[in-house]
Write a structure and sequence with these properties.
The protein has helices at about 10-20, 20-35, 50-60, 65-80; strands spanning about 45, 95, 100-105, 110-120, 140-150. Strands 1-5-4-3-2 form a five-stranded antiparallel β-sheet. By secondary structure, the chain is an alpha+beta fold. It holds the Pfam family DUF7988.
Length: about 150
């Protein structure tokens, strides 16, 4: 018999996303690949060539509107309560230069899930604001969609 107060960790949220939302993750990956098809090479340095087109592709494919349900299922898998139903907008669903961040406030913290579709090479050691020779960020498509989750 399971204790009603027991909670699972973020690995259970990842399992649910992989098992129950495999098709959605495939579509997220296809959207990322479609974005990179518009690039001149295998990477870009302009964030505007990543985030806005990725968001449009996710929206056009229907994936953006399905991500809140995936987030709710991930939260349910942890056994924790969610403060409010998620919507396909910040702070619950955020499209970034690395992929999609899903966030939900829980009774005892916050579940944060990254559906990573791009890697970001941050360039030089500096922050780029000192007039030095810091290289700009470089965005590259990774193979597939990696899922990272944590409860903070």
């Amino acid at each position: 018999m399971t204790d009603a107060t027991s909670t699972a960790g973020p690995e259970e949220a990842v399992r649910v996303l992989r098992d129950d939302h495999e098709r959605l993750l495939t579509v997220v990956g296809q959207c990322a690949t479609a974005v990179t098809a518009e690039w001149d090479g295998d990477s870009v340095t302009d964030r505007e060539r990543v985030v806005p087109p990725f968001r449009r592709a996710l929206d056009g494919s229907g994936a953006l509107s399905r991500l809140p349900r995936a987030l709710a299922d991930a939260v349910t898998a942890t056994g924790r309560p969610m403060a409010a139903p998620p919507v396909a907008a910040p702070p619950y669903v955020v499209v970034t230069g690395e992929g999609v961040v899903l966030r939900a406030n829980l009774g005892d913290g916050r579940l944060v899930v990254l559906l990573r579709a791009f890697e970001v090479d941050r360039g030089g050691d500096g922050d780029g604001g000192d007039g030095g020779d810091s290289e700009p960020h470089r965005y590259r498509r990774i193979d597939g969609v990696e899922i990272e989750a944590e409860i903070v």
